[in-house]
Amino acid sequence: MSETREMIMAIARPMVQARGYNGLSFRELAKRIGIKNASIHYHFPTKGDLGAALARRYREDAEAILEGLWRESQDPAMCLRKYADGFRLALENENRMCLCGVMAAEYHDVPDAVKTEVQAFADSNISWLAKLLSAMDGFGDSAATKERALAIYAAIGGAQLAARSRADISVFDRIVESYRRAGLIPS
Amino acid sequence: MSETREMIMAIARPMVQARGYNGLSFRELAKRIGIKNASIHYHFPTKGDLGAALARRYREDAEAILEGLWRESQDPAMCLRKYADGFRLALENENRMCLCGVMAAEYHDVPDAVKTEVQAFADSNISWLAKLLSAMDGFGDSAATKERALAIYAAIGGAQLAARSRADISVFDRIVESYRRAGLIPS
DNA sequence: ACCTGAACACCGTTCAAGT
DNA sequence: ACCTGAACACCGTTCAAGT
Predict the structure, then answer these.
(1) CB contact under 8 A, A165 and B115
(2) Total Cβ atoms within 10 A of residue B71
C-alpha cells in the first residue's frame, strides 16, 4: 500500500538482521530513508509494531520461497541442501542472521506480538521440513518426523549462531556437514 | 578484589543472560546494587569492559564445572548428559540463555574484547566435548572428533535458542532427545 | 580509592502543529 | 493522509568535584 511504509520495512529488515531488534534505531532508520524519526511512528505506532510486521513479512517471504522450492523440484534431499543455503546466505551478507533467530535471542526484550510472529516462522519452517522428511525413506512415523524436523530447524539455527560469533562462514559449512555425517540431516 | 566490582558482575550476569548485552542498563544495574550509574564506570570504564569481564568469568566458571565433572566421573556419556543439563538450567532460570549465546546473537553490537571472550568460551566448550568423544568408542580419528564436538556445541546452542523463543523447556528436551536418536550426540 | 551530580549526545514515544 | 519540531524520560559516557 504505502510506499513509505514499504521502504521502512525494506530498510529495517537487514538492519535488524545485523544488529537485532534492540540495536535498531528509529533515528538511524529515518536518516537512511530521508524522513524524520517521528514519521516512522505514523506508519508503525511503536517499535513493537514494526518488529511484528517485519517478522510476519519475513515468514511470508520464506514460505513462498520454500513452497516454490518443493513444488518445482519434489526432491527432498536437494530441498534440505537449499534450506541450509538460505541460512548460509544471511551469513554471507555481512554476517547477518535469520531475522527470527536474532529476535529469539532477544526474547525478553520484544513485545508479545513479535514473539507470536517469531514462533509462527519456526512453525512454518518445521512443517515444511516435516513434509520433506515424510517424503523420504525411513520416516514413515509422523511423530518421529515432526521431532526430527524440529531438531533440524534448531540445529541449523545453532550452526548459524556459532558461525556468526566467529565471523567465519566455513564454520557453518563444517557444522552442517557434520550434521549430515552424523545422520541428523538425511542426504 | 573489590567487593563492589564483584557485586556488579554477580548482578549483571543474569541480567545479560535475560535481556542481552544491549538490553543491560547501567542505571537499572546501579539501582539494584544501590549505587549511582556513574560509579559503575569507575570499576568498568565502558559497557564493553563489563561485557568482556562477564564473558571471561563465565568461561572460567564453566571450565571449572566441566573439568570437575570429567575428573570425578570419567564417564563420557554421563558428562554429555550433564553438559546439556547446564544449558537446560539457564532456561529453567526464567528462560535465560547461555551468556555467550546471547552475545553471539548480538555480534555486531559488542566490542571486539567481548567477541574474543565469546569465542574463547566456545573454544573451551568444544575442546572439552572433543575430549569426551575421543574417550568413547568409534571416535579415534581426531579430525572427525573435533568436527563432531563443534557440531554438538552448535546444536545444543540452537536447541536453547529454539526453546527460549517458545518459552517452553520441553522443546529443549525434545530437541536434545532427537539429537541422540539421530546419533549426533552419542549415548 | 571510591563515589557522585551534572552535563552530553543518544534512544523510543507523544502530540500539537503544519501541509 | 502524511510529515514535523519540540518535548519527555530513557540510555552510556565524561568529568570536575567530593570524601
Answers:
(1) yes
(2) 8
Q: Which nucleotide is nearest to B24 (CA to C1')?
A: D11
Is the separation of the CB atoms in B120 and B57 below 8 Å?
A: no
Question: Does the global pTM surpass 0.90?
Answer: yes
Instruction: Supply B8's cell numbers.
Output: 556488579
**Does nucleic acid strand D have an atom less than 7 angstroms from the CB of B45?**
yes
Nearest to A101 among B151, B161, B174 (CB): B161
Question: A97's torsion region: left (phi>0), alpha (psi -120 to 50) or beta?
Answer: beta
B19: nearest CA partner in chain A: A108
B15 Cβ partners below 8 Å, 6+ apart? B23, B24, B28, B29
* Distance between CA atoms of residues B60 and B95, nearest Å: 22
* CA B4 – CA B9 distance, rounded (Å): 9
Please give the Cα distance from A87 to A82 (Å, whole number): 9
The residue of chain B nearest to residue A99, with distances taken between CA atoms, is B105
- Evaluate if the CB of B25 falls below 7 Å from strand D: yes
Written as tens digits, the pLDDT of chain A (187 aa) is 689 999 999 999 999 999 999 999 999 999 999 999 999 999 999 999 999 999 999 999 999 999 999 999 999 999 999 999 999 999 999 999 999 999 999 999 999 999 999 999 999 999 999 999 999 976 666 889 999 999 999 999 999 999 999 999 999 999 999 999 999 999 8
